[in-house]
Amino acid sequence: MRAALLFGREDMRVVDILRPAPGPDEALVRVVAYAPYGTDIGHYTNRGGRYARAYPYGVGADFSGIVEAVGSEVTHVRPGDRVTALALNHCGKCAWCVKGVTNLCLDAEAISRARQACCQQFTIVAANKLALMPDAVSFEQGAMLAGVVVALNGFELMEVDPARPLVVIGVGAMGLAVIATAAAMGIGTIALGGTGGRVDYARALGARVLPLESYGTMVTSEALAISPNGFDQIIETTCSDWGLKQAVEVAGRLATIGVTGGGALPDCVWDIVLRQLRLVGISCGHHQQQALDLMASGKLKLDTTISRRFTLDQAPEAFALLAGREAADIGRVIIEIGAA
Ligand SMILES: [Zn+2]
Question: Is residue 224 part of a domain?
């Protein structure tokens, strides 16, 4: 069968390879449509050496096709079925999978299983990732499923209010999917990004777009001109430092920022995405009275952490102590400056 493989950085060649056979829990699918995302382009350019692995290898995860053959344990799809698949693997048995939240699968072995490569005539897929496509869904639409799934998950996790604008950072493959899904759900969007024709695609979907003069420029002041106190629901889709910075700068007080996944993210941010963590900024708040009440109740034992008391004249000694190695052994220090 014909397959587009990467043989090195920006070295893609279409070659003949052996058609694989499905394992017991796998399906062999004849690929009809494949829609590349930014992560696939990251593999192609091997941006920052981040994607380097043993060449050659096949690319792409988001596709649709027709089941050609299935393994012995596969029952929910049959040859001839029109199907689409997600990129992430799951076990189907752990507590999260049983609840249907397969993207939070706890089975390390299942989720580390090799993903399908779909820029080729046939692909092997873990059969539990396949979904049947209704007749009204075209193969092209089915190949673009992942962005819509991400968007719907984001709207739910972020508790997006359809009555307020949703800011979308980026108008690439994921950004357009978020904007289109928002439009379908009656959510208005303001998109930040785009230097060329992608801006028109975003506008045609109904977004108000603030394009960039050139790649990497900031448009936060234009956005804040629309809403001087910032926005309260923002989805970042570029997986870049630029995008995260834009998202934070246009965020108002107590805003919710959703971050979508992509290979270009720093590892720690990627972990936040995959485990759907909620990273909450916490400043010293407005709870003085509650704190004082806790102290007065006697339930709060913070005073037991005081290990040393100094006078004002002893302040240099106190600072030397706190800055030195002995600091590891002491709790809080109080400098008694005046008489009570
Ligand atoms: Zn699982």
Answer: yes
